[in-house]
Amino acid sequence: MANILIVDDEVGIRELLYEILSDEGHDVVVAENATAARAVRNAQRPDLVLLDIWMPDTDGITLLKEWSANGQLNMPVVMMSGHGTIDTAVEATRIGAIDYLEKPIGLQKLLSAVKRGLQRPAAPGAPTPLTLAAFTRSVPLRELQRLVQQVVVNSRVLLLRVGSGSLAELAARSFQSKASPWLDLSSVSTPLDLTQLQACQGGVLFVAELSRLSRTQQKNLAFALERLDRYDLRMVVATDHTQETLVRDGWEESLVLRLFEVSLAPPSIADVRDDLPEIAAQLLLHLVEAGEVPRRQFSTAALNALRAQPWPGGYAELRAAVKSLALGTLDEEISLTDVRRLLIPSTEGVVAVSLDQPLREAREAFERLYFEHHLRLEGSNMTRLAERSGLERTHLYRKLKQLGLQGGRKSEEA
Questions:
Q1: Element (H, E) at 51
Q2: pLDDT higher than threshold 70 for residue 351
Q3: Helix (H, G, I), strand (E, B) or coil at 6
Q4: CA–CA distance from 206 to each of 188, 241, 253 (Å)?
């Protein structure tokens, strides 16, 4: 029989549904809130989920959206509510729920909904790409998602002003309707034609960095820009160049002005460094769900080490690193050792300090290099850093502060 997950904050309802479905021969697991539901979903991959809408930590609609954004909505979900409305039911169905049950739930309605859900074929293909909606615990990314949604309603074109560590692709994916086409114009080196635009109808055209486009690709961009309405397309482009710089480099001024009409300055990876563990964990989960990597999970130390990395290549570099780590270990858990071996280049014996400066400045430069190196190696774990450096903890914190370096939080030091 099937593995069914029941998510409801009311213990009486959980117990009742558990008894009914267990008597029907199903393997039933219960969760009292969204946090527990996420853990069960990731660990057991249930065949069907009965999901309450009104819960104290995260409501069911938000959790449904999160699963959809993560590419995890590949199991049937039946929503439950004692205070539901038609609008709520419609929204849940639009997101991906297959049915909606009003409380109190009748026995026959419950069994019929479960039967219909289990008879549905499994969702085909790989999960949709990650969007900003997948990262529910990051305040900057939630804010960026709201801004992107606001732009989507009012403009077909968005320019992202980015620099090193760009999250441009993640923002652009959030401009995209579920399962709609996606075309990276920087990958098209020949003249664009109407057939290609028609194949992308309703989708998104993307450019990660305008300054890298050839003359032909610039013409492709202008060609597509004039036909966005005709093919219901949206365009998201990114650059760290100014309008003046692009024009000096030979871009047509009218095209540049059009592209810069609506722009946002999204945060970089450096701006969301504290959220990197969540971002990396979600990327890994998405790769597992897509079948691109074996089932893996990160250790806390590994996530801390990823957070300490600079990621100048931005979201694309981080995603590639996560995939490499998942494929580069035979263990189910990706460890700090794996991160060190695959991602952190050895700097042993290399000290880049200028000798043409006063002794005090040279010593400070050496100390900064020393602690930056060992913060990376220890994943910002202050206990291990104190042991390695031979400094007492209070002295260590004071020294890092003097050098302008950020140590780990106390909750992360175990």
A1: strand 48-52
A2: no
A3: strand
A4: 11, 17, 20
* pLDDT tens readout for residues 371-395: 887 777 666 778 878 888 888 888 8
Q: Which of 263, 258, 253 is nearest to 228 (CA)?
A: 258
Q: Per-residue pLDDT tens for 258-272? A: 999 999 999 999 899
Tell me which H or E stretch contains 31.
Answer: strand 27-31
Q: What is the dihedral of CA 264, 268, 274, 276, to 10 degrees?
A: 110
Which residues, 6 or more positions from 152, have their beta carbon under 8 angstroms from its beta carbon?
A: 175, 234
Where are any strands of DSSP class E within 217-258?
A: 234-239
Report the Cα 169 to chain-centroid distance in Å. 11
C-beta neighbour count of 284 within 10 angstroms? 22
Q: Write the DSSP string, 154-219.
A: H-SEEEEE--TT--HHHHHHTTSPTT--EEEGGG--SPP-HHHHHHTTTSEEEES-GGG--HHHHH
Q: What token pair was written down for 153?
A: 């309603």
List all residues 6 or more positions away from 390 whose beta carbon is below 8 Å from its beta carbon: none
Q: The pTM is what? A: 0.66
